[in-house]
Amino acid sequence: MQNSVKNIFPNFSNELVSTIEENGSQQNFEAGTILMRTGQYIKNTVLILKGKIKIYREGEDGGEFLMYYLQPGQACAISMICTAKSEKSQIMAKVVEDVTVMMIPLQLMDKWMMEHRSWYEFVIETYRSRFEEVLEVVDNIAFRSMDERLEFYLKRHSDACGCSEVKLSHQEIATELNTSREVVSRLLKKMEQRGLVKLNRNQIELLNTNFTN
Amino acid sequence: MQNSVKNIFPNFSNELVSTIEENGSQQNFEAGTILMRTGQYIKNTVLILKGKIKIYREGEDGGEFLMYYLQPGQACAISMICTAKSEKSQIMAKVVEDVTVMMIPLQLMDKWMMEHRSWYEFVIETYRSRFEEVLEVVDNIAFRSMDERLEFYLKRHSDACGCSEVKLSHQEIATELNTSREVVSRLLKKMEQRGLVKLNRNQIELLNTNFTN
DNA sequence: AACCTACAGTAACATTTATCACAGAAGGAA
DNA sequence: TTCCTTCTGTGATAAATGTTACTGTAGGTT
Lengths: 213, 213
Known about the structure:
The structure is a homodimer. By secondary structure, chain A is of the alpha+beta class. Chain A has eight helices and eight strands. In chain A, a hairpin with a 2-residue loop joins strand 7 and strand 8. In chain A, helix 4 packs across helix 5 and helix 7 packs across helix 8. The radius of gyration of chain A is 19 Å and the shape is elongated. The structure holds a DNA duplex.
């Protein structure tokens, strides 16, 4: 079974995998689906088996701001920590590539934390790594200018997909960085002149992966 | 005993309090001490009994950026989560008001999580609330302009100290918001003209607490 | 082909924020 | 008092980013 919990989460113990399969419900969602909105109550923890989910923050004026992506083998840190007293979500979660997820009722969290060592470790590690990721996001917006942030953004994307082509329109990039399309176009053009990228319709090819880092 | 663990952390069980007092070491640090630097290894979890610690991010160019403050009854989320494999710190921690802290070896974390329900709940809650706080910080820098951020900053400060006077120089504020002193002076002046604050040397008096919120 | 729509490029201008330069005021120390 | 240091105010200017407006182009549809 390609997308089994056992394969995607190899560190989970066998009992844990069984428990998950007994208590969780596997579901599919199409790209574009919004799985969670700011202010909604969280009732489930989500384990990603397939596809990609975007976690972002929404401003009052409707602006977006990308926090990070969730991919197979990962889980939504926010949803994991909201313990028994199902808290309100502080973020938006949108499916960007058709996903298969395992939904697990929040009530089971505390119980599993005590009973399953591998679950405990997974939760702690998830939280730690997301915290770090968010700190890095803060760094980027606090200390860097838009051109650096754009480079960083492209690099993250190409790292994630493992290829050097980023298939996004300027508008999409602008939205995730909470800036305007014109700014992105301008900066990309400058990067092209510096020989860092090659621009095509709906696609940006990174020529020199080791720029800012 | 005024600054006892029992008083400052009322939710801890009696056994937990004893265990903490047995295994932790109580220490004092003066204002100005840097307790943790970016890149250092974390070997202890820190519970704050008295005083105030500033948690901030440092940019490559030396710029600062305030994340949040730690006060009595709180603990450093970062240090709590770095489990057994003592991780590197991603942040800076500086004492801003003389502190008394309880240092607890990291090795005990996992053990206590399993053995002490009240410790488990404390850790989870600490992590949850810090995550939210950092998300709010992201919001501020991603979606708001400097004048709004300044208002928010002042409000946080007056909330924290419970009084309407913020005793900080423009330079200190500028540093924490990673901007320049002149910008802060100018914006404060505008706020004064709008009747929101009264400016004095090393002190800003908030006149109208309910501005942006 | 003719048409339509989404995407990309770019100039001109507005706004925000950063930087430089300098002056004055408050408060402490000699 | 006089001197010194720190803090604050403010103008002038630069740089970065956001906004408006318009053009062209690629690709799909009819």
